[in-house]
Structure formats: structure tokens, C-alpha cells
Automatic annotation (TrEMBL):
InterPro entries: ABC-2_transporter_component (IPR051449), ABC2_TM (IPR013525)
Stated name of the protein: ABC-2 type transporter transmembrane domain-containing protein
Record bears the keyword Protein biosynthesis: no
Transmembrane domains' residue ranges: 21-39, 299-320, 349-374, 394-417, 429-448, 480-501
Source species: Pseudohongiella acticola
Membrane topology: Multi-pass membrane protein
Subcellular location: Cell membrane
Domain ABC-2 type transporter transmembrane residue range list: 19-501
GO cellular component annotations of the record: plasma membrane
Superkingdom per UniProt: Bacteria
GO molecular function, one term: ABC-type transporter activity
Keyword list, A-Z: Cell membrane, Membrane, Transmembrane, Transmembrane helix
Lineage: Bacteria, Pseudomonadati, Pseudomonadota, Gammaproteobacteria, Pseudomonadales
Length: 530
């Protein structure tokens, strides 16, 4: 045992002294920080989008303007709530929501155009200033002033050579060079690219879809119908979505008025709702309500599965590169003069396993330092997730399945390394095993959505998938037969794999020449077991 520990310490020190180890340790938190920092900066760095609005019908320009104003007010409110979250005095006791986007989306979705206009009026009459005054006692003394975001969608003037009253097809043809980026529109003393054209034809009302007209619209080659939204950017759908919602709301109000229906009464009816209580039957009586923390806990195992996979891949690299390098340099022969192949193998597994644990601990420490120094709305969400994870029973699951996964796969990879003289030879032998490892990653989201379904239960009983699948199911309270049964199968399989890997390692570590074929490998295993 002492010899094994000495070899493990040697392996550990050799790995932690390399530049690659520290690059791997530092790279993950740096990438994590860049994701948050860059994404938050990019969210406010979106360039101004200039659009043209041509309403030949004369009925829907106000609805489009309402949609643009609504989208801007959404950004103002989101930025204001982030401002409160970031500059409040006490982050522990403040009651501001850590999820402003979801709440505001729900709030604004509940409102119709009239209510959004009322929100605009409230803001224009000093509502934002009033809110800042009310929030002032909760802000830190050094909190900067709130800066209202600039409008992202700005209407531009129609180019002089374009006749807005011409036929819709002709208008589009005249503006096509601007939409394709071949020409730029004039914006004050400068020019800018045209983001979108909102064209509302004169006879747009005949395309309104009513229950009686729906079959007639199901005809092929009908061409563009209704409001035409022309834009080369197909990923930014904020403007098109807001316009569609606003115009449909305006049309419904017209329909109510034409049919003599009281719009206010309809609006009150639309606000009528029946709440839906999400309850978890597995929780104690009286505490069945599903909270945001419960939702986090349900999806958290996926993060642990990723962590197991990433750490395993890093350990595989150490196992293969160290073994092949020592074998090619004949250091193995020197070591085997003093220790047995079994002691050498176990020492390598133990030392590189501790290296992987060290990497995970370094990532966790860097993670805590990051959320401590970089406090934003997004990191507040992460703090909530961490509180849920640390207070749950997922940590023991993670420790067990991490160790068992490492022991199961590390023995196989170490055996592969003992059979190869170069990394190129090892890559060809690793391909089947890598294909196996990809399976639980590809099915991870499906298992998280149906943790006790057939797919999850079948994969749980396949030892190569058990650590990943059972970790993914840990938050869903899988049946006890699955927990106990798969654990027994996994432990027995791991012991068998380590035993067989030891036999291969013993014969392959001093072997030269090409890697054995499958039939030769089978003969090695049979010969060693005889």
C-alpha cells in the first residue's frame, strides 16, 4: 500500500506541475466569467435598428407605434429592476425579484394596448422618477444614477425616390437595395443600414382571418398576406413579434366595437383567471407547493452530469498521455523493477483521480470567488441555485457516481494506454468508448424530463451509463429498486472491469509493436484468467 501511495503522489505532483493542468483549472472559470460579462455587455450593445413604416391603409400605424413603445418600456423596466438588484444596500434581505424578466413578461403580457399606453403615460408623467425616489432608501450610498436605455428601434424617413403610395410590390422593389444592404438610408446627417420594412397594404383588412374566412385562406400561391414585414435579420424577432401582437389587439378592439361589444367588459373578462397551483406529492404535508428552488433542484443533476463528463475527459487525457509517454521513454521498465504492475496501475489511478478532484475543487472555489466579486441579477440567480444544491441530497449522489464513473472508465483507458506506443494508436482504440460516453450526454435532457420513464430505467441498468443516468435521476426520487439494484450492478461491474484492466495492463505495459486486434485482446484476457 505504501508503494501505491508513493506512485499516486508522484503521478499527482507530475500532473499538477504541468502548464496544461493550470490552464485547464483556470480556463473554465475564465470562460464562465466571460460568458456572463460579455453577454451582459452585448445585451446593451445592440445597435440601433432603423425601420420604415408605410401604412397605406392608414389604420394601423398607431398600433405599430404602440408596439415599438411597448418594447422600449419593457427594456426600461428590465434595466430599472436590474439597477435595483445591483445597487441595493443588503443583498441578503432585499426582497427584489431575482428574475425580473419573467415577472415583467408576465406583467406586460397581461396588459392590452390601452394598459401599455397607461404605463407609458405613467412613466412620462414621472413614474420612473417616482420609483427611483421610492427606491432611494434601499440603494447604496455610492449607487450611480439610473440611466434610461436608448430606444433600440427607431423609425427612419422613407427615401425620397420611393413612392409610399405606390403598389405594395413596387414599394418593395424600390426598397429592396436598402433591405439587402446595398444602399443606406439617411438618418439625420448620417446614414445607417435599414433593419426592417413594415408595409401595411391599402386593402389589408380583406386578409383579416376570421373563423368564416379561414378555409378560404388555405389556398396555395396566395402570396404575402396581411402586414408585410421585410427584414434580412431572421434571428431578432422582437420587433416582428411585438408588431403582430399589437396589431392583432387593435383588430380585436375594432371587432368588438363593430359588433357592439363593450370593450371594457371584455377586458375585464379577459383579466379573469383561475390560478394553477403546482404541487409536489413527494413533499411533506403543508409544504407541497412547488417553488423556484424545487425547479432548480429538478434540473440541477444535469449540471453534475456535465461536471462528471468534463472531469472524466480531463482524467482520460492524463491517463493516456502519462502512460504512453512513460512507456515510450522506458520509464515504465525502471518503475517495474521496483513495483508490481498492479501497484503501478493502482498508483496511477489514485494519483490521477486525486488530480481530477483537485480540478473540481479549484473550479468550485473559483466559482464562489466569482459570484462573490461579480454580483449581478444573473449571479443572484446562481446563488439561489447553489443554496438549493448545498441544502439538497444531491451532493452525496454526485460524490458516489463521480468516483464510481472514474473507477469504471479510468481502468479501461489505462488498459488502452498500456497497449499503445503513441497517442495516435490510442485514439483509434478510444473511438468505440467515446461513442458510448456520448450516449448519456445526448439523452440527458430527455431523461431529465422523464426521469422515471422507460428510457431512463433501461439506461440505469447498463453499467456504462449508470453513473450518468442515475445522477440525472437523483432529484426525481427514483424507485428504491433502481437505486439499490443499479448500485450493486455498478459496483460489481467496476470491480470486474478493474480486475480485467489489471490483467491487460500487466501484459500490455511491456508490450511493443502494433496494438492488438480484438481477437488478440480476447486471447490476452483468456490467457490471463486461465
Amino acid at each position: 500500500m505504501r508503494v501505491t501511495l508513493l506512485i499516486a503522489w508522484r503521478e499527482y505532483m507530475e500532473n499538477v506541475k504541468t502548464k496544461g493542468f493550470w490552464i485547464g483549472v483556470l480556463l473554465v472559470p475564465i470562460v464562465f466569467f466571460l460568458i456572463f460579462h460579455v453577454s451582459s455587455r452585448l445585451a446593451t450593445a445592440t445597435p440601433t435598428r432603423y425601420y420604415l413604416l408605410i401604412d397605406q391603409s392608414g389604420d394601423y400605424a398607431a398600433a405599430v407605434e404602440t408596439a415599438i413603445r411597448r418594447e422600449h418600456q419593457r427594456r426600461v423596466m428590465l434595466d430599472f429592476m436590474r439597477y435595483l438588484q445591483e445597487h441595493r444596500r443588503d443583498t441578503e434581505t432585499a426582497s427584489f425579484s431575482a428574475e425580473p424578466a419573467a415577472q415583467l413578461n408576465q406583467l406586460l403580457d397581461d396588459y392590452d394596448n390601452d394598459e401599455v399606453a397607461a404605463l407609458d403615460s405613467w412613466l412620462n408623467n414621472g413614474g420612473l422618477d417616482y420609483a427611483l425616489t421610492m427606491a432611494q432608501p434601499y440603494l447604496r450610498d455610492d449607487a450611480p444614477g439610473f440611466t434610461e436605455p436608448r430606444p433600440q428601434f427607431v423609425e427612419a424617413s422613407v427615401p425620397p425616390e420611393v413612392d409610399p403610395d405606390a403598389d405594395a410590390e413596387l414599394v418593395v422593389e424600390q426598397l429592396r437595395p436598402y433591405l439587402n444592404g446595398e444602399r443606406r438610408i439617411n438618418v439625420g446627417d448620417d446614414s445607417a443600414s435599414l433593419f426592417a420594412l413594415i408595409l401595411i397594404p391599402e386593402n389589408v383588412d380583406q386578409d383579416i382571418v376570421r373563423p368564416a374566412t379561414l378555409p378560404g385562406l388555405m389556398t396555395p400561391d396566395s402570396g404575402p398576406r396581411g402586414v408585410q414585414y421585410w427584414a434580412g435579420n431572421l434571428t431578432d424577432t422582437r420587433l416582428s413579434g411585438a408588431i403582430q401582437s399589437s396589431i392583432n389587439s387593435a383588430i380585436r378592439q375594432q371587432e368588438y366595437a363593430s359588433q357592439g361589444i363593450d370593450v371594457a367588459a371584455v377586458r375585464n373578462v379577459q383579466r379573469t383567471r383561475l390560478p394553477l397551483s403546482r404541487l409536489d406529492p413527494g413533499k411533506a404535508e403543508g409544504d407541497e407547493a412547488v417553488s423556484l428552488a424545487d425547479t432548480f433542484r429538478q434540473w440541477a443533476p444535469m449540471g453534475f452530469v456535465y461536471l462528471i463528463f468534463i472531469s472524466l475527459m480531463q482524467s482520460v487525457q492524463y491517463l493516456l498521455s502519462n502512460t504512453i509517454e512513460e512507456k515510450s521513454n522506458r520509464i515504465i521498465e525502471v518503475l517495474l523493477a521496483s513495483v508490481t504492475p498492479g501497484e503501478l496501475m493502482m498508483g496511477k489511478l489514485l494519483g490521477i483521480g486525486i488530480t481530477g478532484i483537485t480540478t473540481i475543487l479549484a473550479w468550485i472555489v473559483a466559482f464562489f470567488v466569482f459570484i462573490r466579486l461579480y454580483q449581478t441579477v444573473e449571479t443572484a440567480m446562481i446563488v439561489q441555485v447553489l443554496d438549493v444544491l448545498l441544502s439538497s441530497d444531491l451532493i452525496p449522489y454526485f460524490i458516489f457516481y463521480y468516483l464510481s464513473c472514474y473507477a469504471l472508465y479510468a481502468g479501461i483507458f489505462l488498459a488502452i494506454g498500456s497497449l499503445c506506443n503513441t497517442l495516435k494508436e490510442a485514439q483509434s482504440l478510444m473511438m468505440p468508448l467515446m461513442a458510448v460516453l456520448v450516449v448519456p450526454i445526448l439523452t440527458m435532457s430527455f431523461i431529465a424530463q422523464d426521469p422515471n420513464g422507460t428510457l431512463a430505467r433501461v439506461m440505469s441498468w447498463i453499467p456504462l451509463f449508470t453513473p450518468f443516468t442515475m445522477m440525472n435521476r437523483a432529484a426525481a426520487q427514483p424507485p428504491m429498486i433502481d437505486i439499490v439494484g443499479t448500485t450493486i450492478v455498478l459496483v460489481l461491474t467496476t470491480a470486474a472491469v478493474l480486475w480485467l484492466s489489471g490483467r491487460v495492463f500487466r501484459q500490455g505495459i511491456l508490450r511493443s509493436g502494433q496494438p492488438p486486434r480484438i481477437i488478440e485482446l480476447w486471447r490476452m484476457l483468456r490467457r490471463s484468467t486461465d
